[in-house]
């Protein structure tokens, strides 16, 4: 069978076709499109109509290259649409819109952070999330919630608008901070305590569920089935990595970095809570024990600023300039509140360095070097905290997503972690999406067997650590920056 995976991130989407091909797992890119929050009436929202048009064009492109048996969509988490009588009431807010997190303190006044973590497995330090946006709407736009009769997370909203049932898939539900990862049900008591309606929340289905038939609009004699893959992009990415029983440490790289280890059961201990670590559900009953780090968002926003000035923004040019810049310069905490979507990122980076008493990057090479080294240092301290809490000591970390193609980042990460980095596949998210569709079609019998197919089918680049402790000072500096931010809060 041939499946189509629609993988939509906060900066763009890609459509892939593939599936099991004998003893291998095949995947090919068939379409690509841009995606970015748009400004409407002073707010950052998602262009759902544009996304639907791009998805349909991608499915048509896949059909032109061969049969299509199933279609599955994965996206980022956090955001959702509100429906009434099947119609979308308003463009969904984007999670980077500053207003949607503005009532977080009111949540923490009603519910102790430890109780939030115990109820949902999600740490209140992970920002932003669905609960905050839902609470914001209940406080500031209550009339909108009162008009709605269904809430759908972004991957299921798009699936529904293409002909699927109005449900939610459990990997993305588990990221909302409104879902119990043990009972696998919405946390009704928590929501009622916060005065949030529960009747809008849809039924929750596992990855691999068939939810309808794709509506092609144009004539199609036998349109494909719509399947819920692992629809949270990190869940799909981790499913698509060739993890083994001996090595279950992962890092998915994109706009966000999500790094941790795969566990069999959630860890809601005090130690995990204090470490800001969360539990999200994966495929086949697995749990992703992880922390979020702001990822290539910083670099992408720099590219936006430079593109507007007519300067070259291709990665090869930028990374070559970074290699020429002096090593171990200023560092920024990528998660600092100083960085957002509303201003020039190069200016924000320089202001942060000046405010923290560090040398201010001058040219683009120094800025890119600052961003890459900061991402490496932040990722390294984050992963080490997760490993220590989970009481694991992996000899390797499997990296998927866009960072796989960033040789400078991967080499630095191996040195900073003093562990082997296995980089690949870059299409981990799409492969995980396709893999769960293949499991639904019974052409792959389990996650483990699917990962073995992936390991035999994709190229992985190995980076061995060579720095001999050269990153120690940078990691200590990053911990100081994190501590300064927590004291400020």
Gist of the model:
The chain has 489 residues and is α+β, with helices and mostly antiparallel strands.
Characteristic key phrases:
alpha+beta, Nucleotidyltransferase, domain 5, 2 domains, 6-stranded mixed sheet
Report on this model:
It is a single chain. This protein is an alpha+beta fold and 489 residues long. It has two domains: 3-227, Nucleotidyltransferase, domain 5; 243-424 and 459-489, Nucleotidyltransferase, domain 5, CATH 3.30.420. The protein contains 18 helices and 22 strands. A seven-stranded mixed sheet has the order 18-19-17-16-20-21-22, with helices on both faces. Strands 3-2-1-6-15-14 form a six-stranded mixed sheet. A three-stranded antiparallel sheet has the order 8-7-9. Helix 15 links the parallel strand 20 and strand 21. The termini are far apart. The mean pLDDT is 95.
Q: Which structural class is indicated by helix and strand composition?
A: alpha+beta
Strand percent estimate? 15-25%
- Major sheet: arrangement of strands: 18-19-17-16-20-21-22
CATH topology of the largest domain: Nucleotidyltransferase, domain 5
Number of strands: 22
CATH-derived architecture of the largest domain: 2-Layer Sandwich
CATH class of the largest domain: Alpha Beta
Q: Termini separation (Å)? A: 52 Å
Poorly predicted regions are none
Number of helices: 18
Reconstruct the topology from this structure:
Layout: E1 3-9, E2 12-21, E3 24-34, E4 38-40, E5 43-45, H1 48-64, E6 70-74, E7 80-84, E8 87-88, H2 104-110, H3 113-120, H4 130-140, H5 142-147, E9 150-153, H6 154-161, E10 168-169, H7 170-173, E11 179-180, E12 185-186, H8 188-193, E13 204-205, E14 210-213, E15 225-227, H9 233-239, E16 249-253, E17 256-263, H10 270-274, E18 278-281, E19 287-294, H11 297-308, H12 315-324, H13 345-355, H14 364-390, E20 396-401, H15 407-417, E21 420-423, H16 428-440, H17 447-457, E22 461-463, H18 472-488
Parallel strand pairs: 1-6, 6-15, 10-13, 16-20, 20-21
Antiparallel strand pairs: 1-2, 2-3, 4-5, 7-8, 7-9, 11-12, 14-15, 16-17, 17-19, 18-19, 21-22
């Amino acid at each position: 069978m041939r499946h189509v995976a629609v993988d939509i991130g906060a900066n763009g989407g890609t459509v892939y076709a593939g599936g099991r091909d004998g003893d291998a797992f095949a995947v090919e890119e068939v379409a690509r499109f841009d995606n970015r929050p748009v400004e409407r009436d002073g707010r950052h929202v998602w262009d759902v109509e544009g996304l639907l048009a791009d998805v349909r064009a991608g499915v048509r492109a896949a059909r032109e290259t061969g049969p299509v048996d199933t279609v599955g969509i994965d996206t980022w988490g956090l955001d959702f649409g509100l429906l009434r009588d099947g119609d979308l009431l308003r463009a969904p807010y984007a999670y980077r819109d500053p207003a949607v997190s503005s009532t977080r303190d009111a949540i923490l006044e009603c519910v102790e952070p430890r109780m939030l973590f115990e109820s949902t497995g999600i740490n209140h330090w992970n920002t932003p999330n669905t609960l905050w946006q839902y609470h914001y709407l209940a406080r500031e736009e209550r009339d909108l919630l009162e008009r709605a009769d269904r809430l759908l997370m972004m991957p299921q909203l798009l699936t529904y608008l293409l002909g699927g049932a109005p449900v939610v898939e459990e990997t993305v539900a588990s990221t909302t901070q409104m879902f119990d990862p043990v009972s696998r049900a919405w946390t009704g008591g928590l929501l009622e305590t916060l005065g949030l309606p529960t009747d809008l929340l849809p039924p929750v289905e596992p990855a691999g569920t068939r939810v309808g038939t794709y509506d092609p609009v144009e004539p199609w004699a036998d349109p494909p089935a719509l399947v819920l893959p692992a629809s949270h992009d990190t869940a799909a990415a981790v499913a698509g990595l060739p993890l083994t029983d001996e090595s279950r440490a992962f890092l998915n790289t994109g706009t966000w970095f999500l790094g941790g280890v795969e566990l069999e059961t959630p860890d809601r201990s005090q130690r995990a809570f204090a470490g800001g670590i969360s539990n999200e559900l994966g495929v086949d009953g697995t749990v992703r024990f992880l922390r979020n780090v702001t990822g290539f968002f910083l670099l992408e926003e720099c590219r936006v600023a430079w593109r507007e000035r007519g300067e070259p923004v291709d990665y090869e040019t930028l990374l070559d300039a970074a290699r020429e810049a002096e090593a171990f310069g200023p560092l920024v905490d990528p998660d600092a509140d100083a960085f957002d979507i509303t201003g020039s990122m190069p200016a924000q980076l320089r202001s942060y360095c000046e405010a923290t008493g560090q040398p201010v990057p001058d040219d683009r090479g120094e800025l890119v070097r600052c961003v890459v080294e900061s991402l490496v240092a932040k990722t390294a301290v984050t992963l080490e905290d997760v490993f220590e809490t989970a009481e694991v000591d992996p000899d390797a970390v499997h990296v998927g997503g866009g960072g796989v193609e960033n040789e400078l980042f991967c080499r630095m990460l191996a040195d900073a972690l003093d562990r082997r980095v296995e980089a690949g596949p870059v299409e981990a998210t799409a492969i995980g999406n396709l893999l769960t569709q293949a499991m639904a079609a019974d052409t792959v019998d389990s996650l483990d067997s699917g990962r073995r197919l992936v390991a035999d089918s994709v190229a992985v680049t190995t980076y061995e650590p060579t720095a001999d402790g050269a990153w120690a000072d940078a990691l200590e500096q990053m911990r100081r920056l994190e501590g300064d931010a927590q004291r400020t809060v």
